[in-house]
Specification:
Elements: E1 3-8, H1 14-24, E2 31-38, E3 41-48, H2 51-60, E4 67-73, E5 88-89, E6 93-101, H3 104-113, H4 125-136, H5 141-149, E7 154-162, E8 165-174, E9 179-182, E10 187-190, H6 193-196, E11 202-205, E12 211-214, E13 219-222, E14 228-229, E15 234-235, H7 251-257, H8 259-270, E16 271-272, E17 277-278, E18 293-297, H9 299-316, E19 320-324, H10 325-331, E20 340-345, H11 351-362, E21 366-371, H12 377-380, E22 384-387, H13 400-419, H14 425-447, H15 450-459, E23 464-469, H16 473-488, E24 491-496, E25 513-518, H17 524-536, E26 540-545, H18 548-553, E27 558-561, H19 570-589
Parallel strand pairs: 18-19, 18-20, 20-21, 21-22, 23-24, 23-25, 25-26, 26-27
Antiparallel strand pairs: 1-4, 1-10, 2-3, 2-4, 5-6, 6-7, 7-8, 8-12, 9-10, 9-11, 11-15, 12-13, 13-14, 16-17
Helix pairs in contact: 1-2, 3-4, 4-5, 8-13, 8-14, 9-13, 9-16, 10-11, 13-14, 14-19, 15-19, 16-19
The structure holds 6-O-phosphono-alpha-D-glucopyranose (G6P).
């Protein structure tokens, strides 16, 4: 999603804007731009594609202003070209925007009738013209912005600078996140604390509906009722975060390899390692009397929720409803008051997930969230926040956040099972000890990483790939297919193995590899039958299992054997080989692994 940065500095800010934008690259973008105000005059530089193109353009036509805004754009309205790249501006005002202005069409029609000349296909440009009109009428910048904000519908974060005002920047937030960074005689705006980390660790988050007037020495925040308010300034930990690839070729590789460590950290937070009992801090929901659990999320986080449904139902006998947030937000699902609604989100900012959270709150549900960013909107709007301790995840394709989400969900399912009387203390201790083994199993898999390079050759350049799994391996098959399509652009689909004969079997021939996720559990033989059906039709099977004999005896084009773990922890263990398979296929095909085309890390629009 789009990234925003703004700097009121004491020297030319263009280079710092680019540095901050680099730290926002992980969100996904297809063009970028900066604008500064120099001796009262606005200047701008934009480029299609990566930041290096913007840097090149800036080298040719430098901007010298000490106040500036920058943007990485993920196209929503209008193609990703230079004209549509932000900042958008007139000679009076320059704006960068993250989000969507839903009523831009009627606004644009009205403005055009009044004589405004539009240059772009974007929704953002209406904001520029609206503010310019107000300024033309003689309004001060603050009044102009305030008047315009009331006319906008949709979700947005904005950073705005003005001709003739070298010590002024206005930021506004409705829906999309925006942080203020407090420096020494300098002030900043940014989409997140990671962008601001090189400049300051003193960060305050605007609340929904807030706007802020910044000078180099002050920040005045006004809330949606027009009242001046204070927002807490936190010490951000983002500055301590090393946003580099270490010895790895890609962030995704680094993040796959971090999994033993970060799962260990996450477990350390949720289990008492001395007693092997689950201990969830700041979580006082009583599972014993809970009528129902509703889970909602998007993308990979949704698949983590789908695994958890198997866990909660089997180990805690707790009815679970789960749906992707983009559907659940409009389904008008009836909910008995007093249920628990659980949201899973790496970023904590996904617009659809947040919308379901608000719906569930209105339905009188307790609201809990598993998030990786604890300052995020979803975290702040939840009654209970369960952090994943994965550290910043930069690769667009989620890996370590997924396995950390599973780790938290596994602990929660055990707690629910104990409280509901379906897991004894001894069983709890056994399940926890199995969870504690997971980092070791994953390290063993990572030691065999070279085997995936060869396996990836079998997938590269194929048109379609199927992934099959049963039980809690079914969501892992879905996640495997998602990983592959996201980063290699090969069409991949995950199926419940039992559904094979209801459609996908029609696709099987010698050109369609079928990745089968088949741990030796109570469903193993059933999955083997489905593999036979594939083999009988000449399909190429890539088998992921923990059963050496099966791997040796079954005719597969390739197989990978993971360490034998407990049935409960298998989804965590099998998540890793499917990540490695997708990663090495993408590397082999030469795609942009960390920033795949068209994708965004944090999806703050519908
Ligand atoms: C985007 C990302 C996915 C992620 C999904 C949900 O599509 O590319 O990797 O799973 O959003 O994001 P969240 O931050 O809510 O987990």
């Amino acid at each position: 999603m789009c990234g925003i940065v703004g700097i009121l500095g004491t020297e030319p800010v263009a280079e710092d804007l680019i540095d901050a934008l680099k730290r926002l690259e992980y969100r996904g973008y297809d063009s970028a731009g900066v604008s500064t105000v120099e001796n009262g005059v606005l200047g701008r530089c934009r480029a299609k594609g990566k930041l290096k193109n913007l840097q090149k353009a800036l080298n040719e036509a430098p901007l010298q202003g000490h106040a500036g805004i920058g943007h990485t754009r993920w196209a929503t309205h209008g193609a990703p070209n230079v004209t549509n790249a932000h900042p958008h501006m007139t000679d009076r005002v320059a704006v960068v925007h993250n989000g969507i202005i839903e009523n831009f069409k009627p606004l644009r029609e009205r403005l055009e009738k009044e004589g405004a000349k539009f240059e772009t296909d974007t929704d953002t440009e209406v904001i520029v013209h609206l503010i310019s009109l107000e300024l033309k009428k003689g309004s001060a910048p603050e009044q102009a912005v305030q008047a315009v904000l009331t006319q906008l519908e949709g979700a947005f974060a904005l950073a705005i600078i003005f001709a003739g005002h070298d010590d002024l920047m206005i930021g506004a937030r409705r829906g999309s996140p925006l942080a203020i960074g407090y420096g020494e005689k300098e002030m900043y705006l940014g989409s997140d604390a990671i962008a601001l980390a090189p400049f300051t660790d003193r960060v305050a988050y605007l609340e929904d509906g807030d706007w802020v007037r910044l000078s180099r020495t002050s920040a005045t925040i006004i809330d949606e009722r027009g009242q001046e308010v204070e927002r807490t300034i936190n010490r951000s930990t983002a500055s301590a975060m090393l946003v580099d690839k270490g010895n790895h070729r890609h962030f995704m590789a680094k993040e796959i390899h971090q999994q033993p460590e970060v799962i260990g950290h996450t477990l350390g937070h949720y289990v008492d390692l001395a007693t092997n009992r689950v201990q969830i801090p700041d979580f006082d929901i009583d599972f014993k009397t809970l009528p129902r659990l509703t889970i909602s999320a998007c993308g990979t986080a949704y698949y983590a929720g789908l695994v958890a449904k198997y866990w909660f139902e089997k180990y805690a006998r707790l009815p679970v409803e789960i749906d992707v947030a983009s559907e659940m937000r409009y389904r008008e699902a009836p909910m008995e008051p007093g249920g628990l609604a659980l949201f899973i989100s790496q970023s904590g900012e996904t617009a659809d997930t947040l919308a379901v959270l608000r719906y569930c709150r209105a339905q009188k549900q307790h609201v809990a969230a598993i998030v990786n960013v604890t300052e995020s909107t979803i975290a702040r709007e939840s009654d209970a926040t369960l952090p994943t301790l994965a550290g910043p995840e930069i690769g667009v394709a989620s890996t370590k956040a997924f396995t950390c989400q599973l780790t938290v969900l596994a602990c929660l399912a055990i707690k629910a099972g104990v409280e509901r009387g379906h897991i004894s203390i001894e069983q709890e201790m056994e399940l926890v000890s199995q969870l504690v083994e997971v980092p070791r199993h994953i390290s063993t898999i990572l030691n065999d990483e070279h085997l995936f390079e060869k396996m990836a050759h079998g997938l590269a350049h194929k048109r379609d790939v199927l992934y099959l799994g049963r039980g809690s391996s079914f969501p892992i098959a879905l996640e495997g297919a998602l990983k592959l399509k996201e980063i290699s652009y090969i069409h991949a689909e995950g199926y419940a193995a039992g559904e094979l004969k209801h459609g996908p079997i029609a696709l099987i021939d010698e050109d369609v590899p079928v990745v089968v996720v088949a741990p030796k559990d109570n469903l193993f033989e059933k999955t083997v039958s489905n593999m036979e059906e594939v083999a009988a039709r000449g399909g190429q099977i890539i088998l992921m299992t923990d059963d050496k004999e099966a791997a040796a005896s079954f005719t597969t084009s390739s197989s990978f054997v993971v360490p034998r773990a407990h049935e409960f922890t298998n989804p965590l263990v099998f998540a890793v080989p499917i990540q490695l398979l997708a990663y090495h296929t993408a590397v082999f095909m030469g795609t942009d692994v960390d920033q795949p085309r068209n994708l965004a890390k944090s999806v703050t629009v519908e």
